[in-house]
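Hi support team,

I submitted a single chain yesterday and got back a structure, but I'm not sure I'm reading the token output correctly. Could someone confirm the output below corresponds to the sequence I sent? I've pasted both exactly as they appear in my results page.

Thanks,
R.
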Amino acid sequence: MGLSAVRLAVILGTNEIASAVAVYLHRAGYCVVLSHDPNPPVMRRRMAFHDALFADFARVENVIGERIEGSVDVFNALRAPRHVLVTWLGLLDLLPVREIDVLVDARMQKRDITPDLRGLTRLSIGLGPGFSPSANCDVAIETRPAQSGQIVRHGWTATADSAPALLGGVGAERFVYSPYEGRWHTPVEIGTRIYKGFVVGHLSGAPLTAPYDGILRGIVRDGSDVPAGAKLLEVDPRGRDAQWTGIDRRGRGIAQATLTAVQQHRAAGVAPMPLHAADSKL
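Hi R., thanks for writing in. Yes, this is the structure output for that exact sequence:
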């Protein structure tokens, strides 16, 4: 397969939403590159390709994420993309590789100014707060729980309200936030059953405890530098129904909406979007 026959998708972010989108686009035949951004820290790491940055590979729903070191690795992967590519390289490093067909900003930076992605790619998609097709992207997609997966072609996406969706009837109290900037250390693995008051880690030497009984759904990687106010960990209180791996319902809805936007854009063009035969049902 020639280089021009394989479409290139670059996703900004290595979190669980970025990874869900990567899975869907990979299954639809794209060469997908996830570009790491340190803000905010990735917490739901067993639902993401993030840890491939440290261990060469990570897996989400039987799709493998593979760490790459340089832009030449992207060029080589375009010949026969087998895995999702995960890299420390930024967008400016990836732009010279080849024209980007799809650029998705999935960093979920609720309070940062969102850059104008238009003109950098054939199709730019912004996920979450701060995006508008009239200002900084071609298509925007809602990520707030009540509106998650809605495609926005006019106006702005909803602003962040800092109110997490309920999980097993529990809201913000299932999270632990960093009270100040510091270095985070933890020996506890995602998927571990923990109890309220259990010391799960230390921020610059100060102990932080679990806020709730349940399964550790997410926790920032040991040794990470974190800003004040960042989510450090999440507890899933749902018992046997707890989920800490794969793609959850919210991620699946956002990923499907992203794929739909891409398909609609391709349908309006001159050529159909490439699909693997086994994944044509997506």
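A quick pointer for reading it: The two ends are 22 Å apart (CA to CA). Let us know if anything else looks off.

Best,
Support desk
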